[in-house]
Amino acid sequence: MVKTIEWAEGRVRILDQCRLPLEITYIECTDYRMVADCIKNMNIRGAPAIGIAAAMGTALGAAELNAKNFDEFMNALQPVFDTLLSTRPTAVNIKWALDRIKNLLNSKRTEPVDALKQLLIDEAINILNEDIEVNKAIGRWGAKLIKDGDRILTHCNAGSLATGGYGTATAPMFIANEEGKKIHVFVDETRPLLQGARLTTWELMQAGIPVTLITDNSAGALMKRGEIDLVIVGTDRTTRNGDVANKIGTYTVAVLCKEHGIPFYVAAPLSSIDFSLPSGDMIPIEERAPEEVTIVFGGCRIAPEGVGVRNMAFDVTPAKYVTAIITEKGVFRPEDIKNLMEETPDLDAIRL
After folding, report:
1. From the candidates 131, 236, 243, 315, which is the catalytic residue?
2. Cα within 13 Å of Cα(50), Cβ side
3. Distance spanning both ends of the chain, measured CA to CA
4. 275 and 168 in a common domain
5. Is the pLDDT of residue 345 over 50?
6. What is the DSSP letter of 197?
7. Could you confirm whether 236 is annotated as catalytic?
8. 209: domain range?
9. pTM value?
10. How confident is the model at residue 341 (pLDDT cuts 50, 70, 90)?
11. Are residues 82 and 206 in the same domain?
């Protein structure tokens, strides 16, 4: 697998996902502003991946500072935090990563500033490495839900490109494939930026998993024909009651699953669960530039000049449409997610 993001010799190397699958190139970020631009412009995307990028961007920002003590250091870091947090409002992982960094720094107040700067680098790398292990755990739990011969539908990209490595929604597919299960994956193209067509199909083909690309409006027809056995998607933010924010179009797929009696699973690392929000009604939904819808392939206009556009990047799927949520701690019904705030689940059995 190619690396989505890494810390390399004082720089952050980000795989430019806007150029995939035709070209594999990296952007060498030398300051936090470049990292913020990569997040905002979707050169790097996916909730876990942009959380990692925010942590590494903070480390780059800290390297620029000439603070003499802890208080000066934290005050000078605030614009860095603010810039990174403002890049994409829906995914909770940026806030999660920055809160983790702030808590760590506050626990090391007596350390010299140079030590704090190194601490930020180490913690960013820790977040990256932990994410990979979390994804593998999600894969092991999720693979238990996949039977030999299953035909799986996924929407958008929640693969290794959206994470530190291995992916969330794709991880159960990778594990099932490694276990010798014969599976076939249907991938929605995911308009307007075609993350499914450009990224998910490419990743699955690299892993040798049979894959078929479909248009976004084909899912219901395939379900009616009995050609889909289950759906697995990722999430950018899941709330305490089990509501799920994910790429626009996810809600439609979930409603179709309910109508056709097909399991609808969400792969959600704990870092993407926002226990502070009681429901999905409170999740801010990012709206992006109209040009993403009206212009494709860097300049080909497909709609009349001046037409009105609503380009919502995400939608919220209510918990009643979610069969179960796959975490690194196990598989849970949506209504049981809130229990993860307080307890350590028994990992000996899937909780369904």
Report:
1. 236
2. 30
3. 32
4. yes
5. no
6. I
7. yes
8. 140-341
9. 0.93
10. confident
11. no
- If asked whether residues 335 and 201 sit together in one domain, one would say yes
Which residues, at least 6 apart from 61, have a Cβ–Cβ distance to it below 8 Å?
31, 32, 77, 80
Residue closest to 172 by CA, chosen among 236, 258, 233: 233
User: Alpha helices, DSSP H only, in the chain?
Assistant: 32-40, 47-63, 70-85, 93-106, 113-143, 171-178, 195, 201-206, 219-224, 250-260, 291-294
Q: Do the bridges between strand 273-274 and strand 330-332 make them parallel or antiparallel, or are there none, so unpaired? A: unpaired
Residue 174 in this model has a pLDDT that exceeds 90:
yes
Which of 93, 118, 135 is the last residue before a domain boundary?
135
Burial class of 264 by CB neighbour count within 10 A (0 to 12, 13 to 18, 19+): buried
350 domain-assigned: no
State yes or no: pLDDT of 201 exceeds 80: yes
- In which region does residue 244 sit, left (phi positive, over 0), alpha (psi from -120 to 50) or beta (all else)? beta
CATH number of the structural domain spanning residue 163: 3.40.50.10470
Q: Angle formed by the axes of helices 32-40 and 70-85, to 10°?
A: 20
Please give the pLDDT value at position 252. Answer: 98
What is the pLDDT, as a whole number, of residue 349? Answer: 47
The Cβ of residue 112 has, within 10 Å, a number of other Cβ atoms equal to 13
Quote the strand ranges of 223-307, DSSP E.
230-233, 237-239, 244-247, 264-267, 273-274, 295-296, 300-301
